[in-house]
Amino acid sequence: MRPSQFPQAQIDFARVRDNAIRIARETNVPVIAVIKSQAYGLGARQVVQALSDVVDGFYCFTFQEAVDAEVRETKKPTIALLHDQPVAVDDVRAHRVRPAVWDVKHAVSLRAARPVLIVDTGQQRFACPREQIDEVIGAGEIDEAFTHATRVDHARMLKDWCGRKNLRLHAAASSLLHEPDARLDAVRPGLALYRDSVRVTTILLEARDTRGPTGYGGFVSSTGRHGVILGGFTAGLRPGPCRINGEARRVVECGMQTSFVEIGPHDKMGDEVVLLGDDLTVEDLGKAWSTTPHEALWRLATVTRVFTR
Predict the structure, then answer these.
(1) Which architecture does CATH list for 198-308?
(2) Which helix (H) or strand (E) holds 252?
(3) Coil, helix or strand for 132?
(4) Taking the complete model, does pTM exceed 0.85, yes or no?
């Protein structure tokens, strides 16, 4: 079957599952899977189904994300950072969502939903300052606390401030999984779950010898040849690396719906162009695009057509 001319993202949910199992084995603590923003673009409902029996719970940005991902069916708890208003506490409980709180007002109003305390260890957003921790814990009858840690020191702060309060604690996201001091009672991976699980491809629509300045910006191909692919910045693409027939090539200019790529002497119309996958990682794209690997993954997995295997 001839591949679609539009970019396609192949999502390997078995790899996502294997990543979760590996993380649990290497950290030796329960795993809370981050599924916010459609599981980084892969599809939150499908990721929840793949992970339901291998993780301890889930983490998302809003209550509605948990509802849409059908987490309730797994019977696993989900922490939601922002409590969507207006939502009845009984509905929150019915969906097994535990709202994050960082002040007394919300700790009291959401007490029946078993809120989780989020502690400010340096990020300075959506979090409780150190001096109010005891008051918020008491107001919400809280038994769990976490922080958004970017350094192992942040995890140590959480343990120092809350370690004697009989709370379950977690701080480590993907960047801190390798730090034993950051693992505490659970880990909360996001990108680490999805690494190497997405392969995005398209095909060459045209293959030409370059004759002088080309495209909107007048680029000159370093190889003397260029091609055109269907998929531009509306499909999440930016100028940067790609692979054609196993060789490192570059997307040199992105239009709205098409992009120019440099090609080699034997590349031809219909050849596959790999935009992510094989040996081309989200870290490679993030560096080339001057952004984070998280954004690179979301851009390509979300905007392109997705099918699973």
Answers:
(1) Beta Barrel (2.40)
(2) strand 247-254
(3) helix
(4) yes
